[in-house]
Design brief:
- This protein is globular.
- By secondary structure, it is of the alpha/beta class.
- The longest helix is centred in the middle third of the chain and has 22 residues.
- The strands form four sheets. It has a nine-stranded mixed sheet with strand order 5-4-6-7-1-13-14-15-16, with helices on both faces. Strands 8-12-11 form a three-stranded antiparallel sheet, with no helix packed on it.
- The chain is about 35% helix and about 25% strand.
- It has a domain of about 220 residues: 3-Layer(aba) Sandwich (Rossmann fold), CATH 3.40.50.
- This is Putative DNA repair protein XRCC2.
- One of its GO terms (molecular function) is ATP-dependent DNA damage sensor activity.
- InterPro entries: P-loop_NTPase, RecA_ATP-bd, XRCC2.
- One of its GO terms (biological process) is double-strand break repair via homologous recombination.
Length: about 325
């Protein structure tokens, strides 16, 4: 070691950060495990996880369950809840979020350690958790972009109020406005308007705004995206706000077709700038095996498959009134 390196080494040994600053730095880069059924791959803040599947396929239910784990405390009055004790920001783009369902699942998680007949739930804990859940609804792409541009200020304010930061940014569903924007673009082109809405420009703005936000507020981003599956020989159908419109792009868009193990296909319709932004992707589809392996009345079964990174196996999940679980 030469004499030029010694001052740098001494500064490194002496340290220039407090213990709390060190813990915050380590927490930002250290991978963490999401609750089941998203537990297979460790994720870090800055990652973008996309849940892809038809509607319905429990995508929003998985978001709700994950959000509840994030807002719950690690311990409360001697009971271990295993929560992250952080805020969640939920951006609702398809206006399908059910706050009553969210409340019911939160109450169930609070009462779960007490078992059946545990009495009333802890109202103070319930209120604390609900205050950590931040909800925003957008009705079009312009509102979505406006929301993203004001989030830096809002997240700073929420951190001051709650004393903790936002841990998860959830977007349900990222493709909700795609077909409305596409129709608006075609109409503008037909009318020779200068206010043409270009899909690529909107996606670029969304990605850039989220990237800037993550630089100041490190978070894990989880989004959902609705798609339609079809057999190779059938005509594609594309979901548009609960309706379907026929499409014959199969040959033209074959390079954007994804296949799963059951020879079903779905077409990627989001612009490439968004596709390259996604770091992890999970495919969720209905289970072909409808046999009930446990006492699960009024339940729905789905297959959950990691596409990015690709894992060699799938998980079978069951959606019950009290949450989403692995079907053992």
């Amino acid at each position: 070691m030469n004499h030029h390196e010694r001052p740098h080494l001494q500064n490194w040994i002496a340290g220039d950060e407090s213990g709390s600053e060190m813990l915050k730095r380590v927490w930002r880069v250290r991978p963490f495990i999401l609750p089941k059924p998203l537990h297979r791959v460790p994720l870090r803040v800055g990652n973008v996880l996309e849940l892809v599947g038809p509607s319905p396929s429990a995508k929003t239910q998985i978001l709700i369950q994950t959000a509840i784990t994030c807002i719950l405390p690690k311990d409360w009055k001697g009971i271990n809840y295993g929560g992250f004790e952080h805020l969640v920001l939920f951006i609702d783009l398809d206006s399908r979020f059910d706050i009553q369902r969210f409340s019911q699942m939160l109450v169930h998680r609070i009462m779960e350690p007490y078992g059946e007949g545990g009495g009333d739930y802890d109202k103070k804990l319930y209120d604390l958790c609900m205050s950590r859940f931040l909800y925003v609804r957008c009705s079009d792409s312009f509102q979505f972009l406006q929301t993203l541009k004001t989030l830096n200020w809002r997240l700073d304010k929420e951190k001051e109020v709650h004393g903790v930061s936002v841990h998860l940014l959830m977007i349900d569903s990222i493709g909700a406005f795609h077909w409305m924007d596409r129709a608006s673009m075609l109409l503008s082109l037909k009318e020779n308007s200068r206010k043409t809405l270009f899909l690529q420009s909107v996606s670029e703005a969304v990605v850039q705004d989220i990237k800037k936000l993550l630089q100041v507020h490190p978070m894990l981003v989880i989004t959902t995206k609705s798609v339609i599956f079809w057999n190779k020989s059938s005509t594609a159908s594309i979901e548009v706000k609960g309706s379907f419109m026929k499409n014959n792009w199969e040959e033209r868009s074959s390079r954007n077709v994804t296949r799963n193990s059951q020879h079903l296909q779905y077409r990627e319709y989001m612009p490439s700038v968004w596709q390259s932004f996604v770091t992890h992707r999970i495919l969720i589809r209905s289970s072909d095996d409808h046999s009930v392996t446990s006492n699960c009345q009024n339940s729905s079964f789905y297959l959950l498959e990691w596409l990015l990174p690709r894992l060699s196996f799938s998980d079978r999940i069951v959606v019950k009134d009290d949450g989403v679980f692995l079907d053992s």
